Amino acid sequence: MTVINTIKAGLRVGLVGAGGIARLHLPAWLALGAQVTVYSIDGAAGTLVNEFAGGQVAESLDELLDAVEVVDVVTPTFTHPEIVLAAAAAGRHIVCEKPFALDTATAEAMVKACASAGVQLLPGHVVRYFAEYSALQRAVAAGAVGAPAVLRFHRCGSRPLGGWFADPALSGGLVMDQMIHDLDFARWIGGEIETVFARIVDSSPGTTDGVVSAHVTATHAGGAISSCSGTWARQGTRFRYGFQVAGTDGLLEHDSAGAAPLVVDAGAARAGGELVSVSPTVESPFLTELREFAVSFSGGPPPRVSAEDGVAAVRLAVAANTSILTGAPVEVAA
User: Fold this and answer.
1) Domains in the chain, start-ordered, CATH in brackets?
2) What gap in Å lies between CA 33 and CA 7, rounded to an integer?
3) H-only helix segments in the chain
4) Which of 63, 120, 266, 317 is surrounded by the fewest CB atoms within 10 Å?
5) Model confidence band, residue 268 (pLDDT cutoffs 50, 70, 90)
6) How would you list the strands of the sheet with 70-73, edge to edge?
7) pLDDT of 306 over the 50 cut
8) Angle at the Cα of 110 from the Cα atoms of 104 and 111, rounded to 5 degrees
9) 245 — phi, psi (to 5°)?
10) For the chain, how far is it from start to end, CA to CA, in angstroms?
11) Does pTM surpass 0.90?
12) pLDDT score at 299
């Protein structure tokens, strides 16, 4: 049997949104040879297209849907469901930035609608495509540390400037927006999570100032324990991340602050801080991710992350936020 591992020539992609993540997705799609159409409700699509010298602008979501085969949703979280459902109804494959939605039921409904329409829905869990995390997953799967026992993940970056991030009703807060990456990864290599217990401290709630930090402890079905820490710090804070995975036969660890590849640090030239470290020696994880998605949309094998993984990640983040509100451990519904 022939395995398709190439991307359809001239794949037509519609990018909905022109904010921070769009600035990482658009050049990746262009590098893959896609024909990109951009639509944004705030009129920023033209600026984005001009900056990267590629793509064209749609005047409405309907116009975009009529012109493309794949829709890439890179808008604020609270807008995801409506756009995904419209794309599914139009018969378009979909990439949706994490999280799918702010609650599990809505995320499940999105997946069901896409399945009924016969289209793929893939979540933007880009950390699965970071070189260090990808290497970690392969090593754990190969038995390098034996059975995983204790997993620790940490992530820190500048507090987002967009006002909607400061409203948990719109963003889900730090856990749903940032820490969902590490909750997803912990589940990927440690197995299903049964219980979470979470705490959060915020020096300036409801604003884009100050520092907010959260910690989630997760108990896996197989007995492993994961510890996830996330921080949105003051503007200018360098993005950094790391992990330690200890098992019955060894330990694997990485800290981007102490073992970073060659990077270009241009200071605080761009408002809003770094979204991901930029290295001239390592391929952008967004390019790696979207290439794998594009191959799948072109009839190739499924990528390393699925729609069901996207729902599971939302479920974990909801459970963690519930634990924060109640002060008690929360069982994660299957």
Assistant:
1) 12-125 (3.40.50.720), 127-282+309-331 (3.30.360.10)
2) 9
3) 22-31, 45-52, 61-67, 80-89, 104-117, 131-141, 168-171, 173-174, 180-190, 285-297, 307-326
4) 266
5) very low
6) 56-57, 35-39, 12-16, 70-73, 93-97, 121-124
7) yes
8) 90
9) -125, 115
10) 36
11) yes
12) 95
Q: Give the pairing type, strands 121-124 and 93-97.
A: parallel
Half-sphere exposure of 36 (CA within 13 A, CB side): 30
Residue whose pair of structure tokens reads 């952008």 in the numeric block: 284
In this predicted structure, what is the pLDDT of residue 235?
Answer: 87
| Torsion 80-81-85-88 (CA) sign | positive
At 210, list the tokens: 């100050």
Q: Packing angle between helix 285-297 and helix 22-31, nearest 10 degrees?
A: 60
pLDDT for 106 equals 98
Contact between 98 and 172 under an 8 Å Cβ cutoff? The reply is: no
pLDDT confidence tier of residue 218, bands split at 50, 70 and 90: very high
Decide if pLDDT at 227 tops 90.
yes
Lookup: tokens for 231? 């921080």
Please give the order of strands across the beta sheet that includes 212-220.
250-255, 240-247, 148-158, 225-233, 212-220, 193-202, 330-331
Answer positive or negative: Cα dihedral of 102, 106, 108, 112.
negative
Whether the pLDDT of residue 65 is over 70: the answer is yes
How high does pLDDT run on average in the chain?
Answer: 93
CA proximity to 185, closest of 240, 143, 226, 230: 226
Instruction: Please report, as a single letter, which amino acid is at residue 23.
Output: R
Tokens 């999280």 identify what position? 99
